[in-house]
Amino acid sequence: MATRKVVKVGDQNLRKKSKEVKNFDEDLWQLLDDMKETMYANDGMGLAAPQVGVLRRIVVVDVNNMFVELINPQIVYQEGKDIEKEGCLSVGSFKGRVERPYKITVKAVDRYGYPFSLTGEKWLARCICHELDHLDGILFIDKTLDKKEYLEKGGRI
């Protein structure tokens, strides 16, 4: 395993749409292991592949000591709404309020290509939604209710 460099706001790859994973091999497993190590080394709750410069539909999350790898994830159900502050390893120290679904169900495949689904509420739902946005080139600063504050502090979109 290795810690990879986290891509920061301003890098155009953060704004690109990621491609579906088709090869479930040692290269994928290495990337997943590196993403996990990178997330933990940076005190993150989640990390998407574009944040380490890889435009693939891959996410790792760890909420309440529940670590999950999501490959080719897709939200298939959502309900309710929840507003909380979020941060992002690619953005820096700014935290802003974002409205997300309170509960979601996501379909994905694991590192071996086997499908599964996962239902999460509150922080797990929030973290998964945040990371899945990265796969489509969306950052939480695009959705924050505190965008004016972010821009006033010199933030870049």
Structure characterization notes:
- The chain has 157 residues and is an alpha+beta fold.
- The protein has one domain: Peptide deformylase (Peptide Deformylase, Alpha-Beta Complex).
- Helices cover 25% and strands 34% of the residues.
- It contains 4 helices and 7 strands; from the N terminus they run αβββββββααα.
- The chain has a 5-stranded antiparallel β-sheet, sandwiched between helices. It has a two-stranded antiparallel ribbon with strand order 4-5.
- The longest helix has 16 residues.
- The radius of gyration is 15 Å and the shape is globular.
- The mean pLDDT is 96.
Which properties best describe this structure?
two-stranded antiparallel sheet; five-stranded antiparallel beta sheet; 157 residues; Peptide Deformylase; 25% helix; single chain; globular; alpha+beta
Question: How are the SSEs placed, and which strands pair?
Answer:
Elements (H helix, E strand, L loop, with lengths): L25 H16 L4 E3 L9 E6 L2 E14 L2 E7 L3 E9 L2 E7 L5 E7 H14 L4 H4 L3 H6 L5
Antiparallel strand pairs: 1-2, 2-3, 3-6, 4-5, 6-7
What proportion of the residues form beta strands (DSSP E)?
25-35%
- What proportion of the residues is helical, as a percent range? 25-40%
Distance from N terminus to C terminus (CA atoms, Å) equals 32 Å
Largest sheet: 5 strands, antiparallel
Strands, total number: 7
CATH secondary-structure class: Alpha Beta
Order of helices and strands: HEEEEEEEHHH
Low-pLDDT stretches: none
